[in-house]
Amino acid sequence: MGPYLGYSSAFRPFLPDIHYLKFQTKIFDLLNTNKIDFFLKPHPGTKSMISKGMINEYKLNILTKNYEKIVEDLDFDFFILDHIASTTAPHIINFSKPTVYFDFNFTEINDLLRKELEESLKIIPVDQKKNGEFNFDSMLFKNFLDNIRNNNHINWHRNILKYYE
């Protein structure tokens, strides 16, 4: 997932910091509640700093190496994406690991690509409430996590790379 400070991100000047932070902490809570160790890889261009208090509170493992080095050195059970137009998204989607994509509906995706994405990863829609907060169905995410834990995840057709060539 990207930097939580939306105002300081080139991709998300329209994502208010506090609302994006609340979205991410909801995910952190769900991961911790399900006793899942997880790593956070901020975008290398992010200007935001994650406070020590937040790192300790949510048991965050922050990775600072470049993405390629991280996936080469570590073994992951799954990936979480919240931005489909990133430079790492094609590799993550085509990687042989389950992937969940939190879709803020900020990136316009044509119907053909959306169909391919749905066959390649789990898409969880994110809606914005009137007060600006982001909301998603936490049961969809919990089911995704349970399926991975029980090794029942879908063996997705991963033919998405052709759209990034």
Overview of the molecule:
With 165 residues, this protein is an alpha/beta fold. The chain has one domain. The chain is 35% helix and 12% strand. The strands form three sheets. A three-stranded parallel β-sheet has the order 3-4-5, with helices on both faces. A two-stranded parallel ribbon has the order 1-2. Strand 4, helix 5 and strand 5 form a beta-alpha-beta unit.
Q: How helical, in percent, are the residues?
A: 25-40%
Query: How many discrete domains?
Result: 1
Question: Which quaternary structure do these chains form?
Answer: single chain
Strand order of the largest sheet: 3-4-5
* Helix-strand sequence: HEHEHEHEHEEEH
Total of DSSP H or I helical runs spanning 4+ residues: 6
Over the alpha carbons, how many angstroms does the gyration radius reach? 15 Å
Gross morphology is globular
Count every beta strand, where a strand is a DSSP E run of 2 or more residues.
7
Q: Give the strand content.
A: 5-15%
**What are the segments in which pLDDT stays under 50 over at least 5 consecutive residues?**
1-11
Average pLDDT level: 79
**Span between N and C termini?**
23 Å
Q: Sheet bearing the most strands, described? A: 3 strands, parallel
User: Which class best fits the helix and strand makeup?
Assistant: alpha/beta
